[in-house]
Structures are given as structure tokens and as C-alpha cells.
Amino acid sequence: MRHWMSSLTLNQKLAALAFVLGVVAVFAKPTGGGAVTIDPNDLARIVETEVDHVDPLDLADWIMAGRADYRLVDLRDEKAFGEYHIPGAQRLLITDLPDAGLPRNEKIVLYSDGGIHSAQAWFLLKAKGYTGVYMLLGGLDAWRDEVLFPTLAKNPTPYQQQRNEKLTAIARHFGGQPRSGAADTEAAPQIAAMPKLELPAGVAAPAGAAKKKKKEGC
Amino acid sequence: MNTPFYKYGAFGDETSLVVAFVIGIGFGFFLERAGFGSARKLVSQFYLNDLAVFKVMFTAIVTAMLGATYLAWMGVLDLSLVYLTPTVLWPQLVGGLVLGIGFVIGGYCPGTSVASVATGRLDGLAFVLGLPVGTLLFAEAFPWIRGFYENGSVGVQTLPGVFDLPYGLVVFAVVLMALGGFAGASWIEKKFQPR
User: Fold this and answer.
1) Residues of B whose CB is below 8 A from A68
2) One domain, residues B76 and B165
3) Which of B116, B66, B145, B34 is CA-nearest to residue A15?
4) How many domains does chain B have?
5) Residue B99: per-residue pLDDT
6) I need a labelling partner for B140 at 20 to 30 A (CA). Which of A116, A152, A162, B86 fits?
7) Mean pLDDT, contiguous 10-residue spans, chain A (218 residues)
8) Could you state, in order of their start, the residue ranges of all structural domains in chain A?
9) Residue A206: Cβ within 10 Å count
10) How far B194 CA lies from chain A's nearest CA (Å)?
11) Does B12 share its domain with B75?
12) Secondary element (H or E) of residue A110
């Protein structure tokens, strides 16, 4: 036996190993989508460290950069969605979420008006074994206050001036309008209606429709 | 431990670039060590007297496949989170043909051309400089070829799904295919040895 083994070349031994592994693999049961174990400690850690949040300004950056490596899900009803939604969002009611067949290997960003529905949907998807689930921090309210109608610093320092310009550019891109300075804390003008859905060309492409090609290969 | 690491948030976007860099260095190193920094070595596969490219690539495929299978079986790797390239039939057939023609004529494929530049070869450099030019041309021409680009899109396809076979059986079949291929390749190499 020993003599027989040592007469094999390394290549032949490796080939034999691959053959054995291949035979055993016939009985393999690959996981994925089946049983899901939820680790409460792990969930608590994610919540505590806030790694499951996406800042509205970051999301605005992603949209403006044309990133397509995430899926934006609007959890509000049809009417609200029709009035305004973040460019690229797809509408899904929380009741439809478990069976919507969202791809498990994509980054999913949830939002609703505030933060509660998206947080509940987050747990729901986590319980279904989804891993890349994120919430828009502060929901659509924060999107409105930070992206569409940001408050610009009054008497800005040079650094703040830079930031003001950036915020203005972002707000205009999404059809909003920045508000200036602290003066209007008392009688904050009722924020005008959400911008019309006619968005600048190029931003309204729904996620998933024009997926960016990923580079792979030899 | 859960993998894929990136999908489980073990590291973020920035770190992923570092990880990609390290893996890329490793990939290039082994390409070079397999002799794939040389166009002579690479094109010998088309003269059928040295099928190292076929053997190395198929070995890598089988190794990765068995590793992924067993890790998934142990519950360490969630296969449903692994990115799969969607199949777009016609453009991928034509693209493969174009790559093959370029490979035969020029002696490199994209990865190996970079490996060859790293060893200081000028023919590889011509290839690498051609990459951004071709990319630019493609991008500029994209509005005209968009229709073809999306022609025959059938989404993500896997062998177990297409043939409706158990996953493990396909793994075994691919291993058999590889072993048969290796034996066949050695036979062909001997037959076409230059005299």
C-alpha cells in the first residue's frame, strides 16, 4: 500500500484527492436560503454600532455618482410614492417584503417616512437571513431636511462655505432648495411641496434596470 | 464565522480595496509563476504543444469550486450571497470570440498582460495601454450598441438550475470533466510535441 502510494506523482495524488472530494460532494447540501439562525447578540451589536445606517447625504452621493450596487426600497403606500420618492427607489409594502424575492446578495437600503417602518422591515429581512440590509437614517424626513432643503450655516467660515456650496449643489441636483441660516428657527417657512418628480436627466434610472457591469475574469 | 466577509460587513468599502489589492497581487504572482507572463507560453496552447493554460485555469476552477462547496456545506459560506455574473447570451458569445481572437493574435488576455508588464515585457505593455483605449471606444460607442448589449439577457444562470440536477452531482461532474481534461491534455501535448 505504502509503496503504491509513493509511486504516484504529486499531480496524481492531487487528482485523486479532487476525485474523492468530488465523490463526497455528491451528497453535499449547500446552504443558502434555507435554515436561518438569528443571533440576538449579533443583531444587538449591529444596532449598537449603527453600521446598518446610511446617511441621507451618502445616499445622495451614491445616486449622483450613478452607483448601481444597491437597491433602494420605499416602504410607503402607492399614493405617497406617487407624490415623491427618492430617485431610483422601488416601492414595496412591508407586507409584501418577505415574498418580494429581493436578491440576497445585494445591498438593500430601506426607507419610510420616519424611521420606524424601515427599522421594522430591517428586522423582518434580517429574520429572513438577509445580510446586506440598511436603513436610510431618519427616513424621508431626514432626506427632505438634509438633502432637499438643507439649512445652510449663516456667516460661514471658509470650511462651512465649502460645505454650503456642496449642500446647495446636492439640493439643486435633486430639485430642492437650501434654506439659509438660523434666523428662521422661529417661523420656519413651511417647507414647500416636495419637488416634482421630473428629475434631472440621468438620476431617475431605477436601480437594477441598468446595472453596472462588474469586472471579473482572467 | 460567516462569509462572504464583505457581504457580512466584516470590512467596509475602503478596506475592500486593500483586500482586492492583496488578492490581486497574489493572483498576479501565481499567474507569473505559472509562466503566464510570457506570450510564448500562452500561445503554445493554440499550437497544442503546451496546455498549461488550460490545466492551470481548470485546476483553479476545480479548487475554488470544491472549496466553495465544502465551505457552504459546513455552513461557513452563504452561496446565495456570492455575486454571479448574469448571462447575456449573444454579447457574451461575441465578446468571448473577440477575446479569443485577440488572445491568439496578441498572445495575452487582460490579466496575463498585466503580469507580463510586471516582468518588464514591452509586448505586454502595448496590451495594457490598449485596454483603456478599447474601454474608451466601447464607452463612446455604447449608445449605438446598447440594443445588442442587452440582447439575450436571461439573468443569473447556474448549471444545477439549467440542467435541473442536484448541486453535488454537478460538482462531481465538473471534477470528472477536469480530470478527463487533464489526461486528454497530457496526451495531446505528447502528440503535438515539436520535433
Assistant:
1) none
2) yes
3) B66
4) 2
5) 92
6) B86
7) 75 90 83 58 77 88 81 89 89 84 82 87 84 87 89 83 88 84 47 58 41 45
8) 46-141, 149-181
9) 13
10) 24
11) yes
12) strand A107-111
Chain B residues with CB under 8 Å of A28 CB are 69-70, 72-73, 167-168, 171
Quick check: A32 and B79 in contact, CB under 8 A? yes
**Is residue B104 located within the same domain as residue B125?**
yes
Q: Which three cell numbers stand for residue B43?
A: 500561445
Q: For the whole model, what pTM was predicted? A: 0.61
Topology (CATH level 3) of domain A46-141: Oxidized Rhodanese; domain 1 (3.40.250)
B59-111 pLDDT, tens per residue? 999 999 999 999 888 878 877 778 888 888 899 999 999 999 999 998 999 89
- Pair B91, B151: CB distance under 8 Å: yes
Considering only CB atoms, which chain A residues are within 8 Å of B175?
18-19, 21-22, 25
Do both B171 and B121 map to the same domain? no
| Distance of residue A153 Cα from the nearest chain B Cα, in angstroms | 30
Q: Are residues B5 and B79 in the same domain?
A: yes
> Would the CB atoms of B72 and A26 count as touching at under 8 Å?
no
Of A216, A189, A199, A203, the closest CA to residue A68 belongs to: A203
Instruction: Assess whether B71 and B94 both reside in one domain.
Output: no
Same domain membership, residue B90 and residue B79 = no
